[in-house]
Write a structure and sequence with these properties.
The protein is of the alpha/beta class. It has one domain: Rossmann fold. 36% of the residues lie in helices and 17% in strands. Strand 5, helix 4 and strand 6 form a beta-alpha-beta unit. Helix 4 crosses helix 10.
Length: 341
């Protein structure tokens, strides 16, 4: 059960209408829930150990002065010790030149549902391999095919190569006979951004929307608010340094005048039902808050889950940390709620 179920303040537009004595638009307030870590020695002990390992073994090596090869190696080393779910099978494949992993539950040899999973890593690091602790569990929990593109990364391939590769993966699922109402898109961090942007790219290309989106700690800001979480929570975040965020946004190099270049300017009028999960102790906290509020203003259904005392993409510690297992279970339930049978 959530610690609290909070409905946020009315959007600013409603307040302005009230000042002008004109009718305010009908709005639904954002759905925001907070979760404390589950009680128990395993959660508290592993939480402390994992937080310390991130601070010492990963955070210093993500961002300047390190080059991208060093950063990729650091994330890879950190990820290989995260346990995969033995109930899932991973098969490497290709869609043309695009490398992908197909992850399926061993108990469901012919899935009726599918997820395009856009892995995180600040657009420049990470791979399908580094995120198997998440993708194998999503496959096991949902019974779906989880298709994970090894999308082109920066700085070698700047924007919008990553979005284009996500579209290619989605089109492949359609070509294989998966109906849009049985498809979801999910991703973490930069992959959360790509999940959000992929929905917009599909709309712009006249392609059908998936049934559901799930985003973990998505990044949508292209500028840093000096009073926002990117600054105020930097000392609490055990994984992300603001200097890394500045570096990778420069590498990503999304032009503001491109139709997909400014995430906060995207039309959300067709955004599918969306679940956003974020840790309390992370610099990207404000971005998750913004998405749920913007989607709600656009008349779309979005839910935000805030995990207290947890960090950026803590879900990657599933199998070790009970709160991570619970978060992925809630994702699976959200997919099933909106998928067609």
């Amino acid at each position: 059960m959530p610690l609290t179920s909070v409905q946020g303040a009315p959007p600013m537009s409603a307040a302005l209408h009230a000042v002008k004595n004109t009718p305010a638009p009908v709005t639904t307030l954002p759905i925001i829930r907070q979760y404390l870590p589950p009680k128990g020695a395993k959660e508290s002990l592993m939480g402390a150990l994992l937080r310390g390992a991130l601070i010492v073994g990963l955070k210093p090596f993500l961002g300047p002065p390190w080059n991208v090869a060093t950063q990729r190696a650091a994330l890879h080393v950190g990820s290989v010790v995260m346990p995969q779910d033995g109930r899932a099978l991973v098969v490497k494949d290709r869609i043309g030149a695009l490398e992908v992993e197909r992850v399926t539950a061993k108990a469901v040899p012919q899935p009726r549902h599918a997820i395009v999973y856009m892995h995180g890593g600040a657009f420049c690091v990470g791979s399908p391999r580094t995120h198997r602790s998440i993708t194998t569990r999503l496959a096991a929990l949902t019974g779906a095919l989880v298709l994970v593109p090894h999308y082109r990364r920066t700085p070698e391939h700047p924007f919008p190569a990553q979005i284009e590769d996500g579209v290619a993966a989605y089109k492949q699922l359609l070509a294989e006979g998966f109906a849009p109402e049985r498809i979801g898109i999910a991703g973490d961090s930069a992959g959360g951004n790509l999940t959000y942007m992929l929905s917009a790219a599909l709309r712009q290309q006249g392609l059908p929307q998936p049934a559901v989106l799930v985003m973990m700690s998505p990044v949508v800001s292209t500028e840093f608010d000096p009073n926002g979480s990117a600054v105020t929570r930097a000392h609490r975040d055990p994984m992300i340094r603001p200097a890394w965020a500045h570096q990778v946004l420069d590498w990503y190099n999304a032009p503001a005048d491109h139709p997909l270049g400014t995430p906060k300017a995207i039309d959300l009028s067709e955004m599918p039902p969306s679940l956003i999960q974020v840790g309390e102790d992370e610099v990207l906290y404000d971005d998750s808050q913004w998405i749920v509020e913007a989607a709600t203003r656009a008349g779309r259904h979005a839910e935000l889950e805030i995990y207290l005392k947890r960090w950026h993409v803590f879900q990657s510690h599933a199998g070790l940390l009970p709160s991570s297992d619970q978060a992925l279970q809630r994702q699976a339930e959200f997919f099933k709620r909106y998928w067609a049978a």
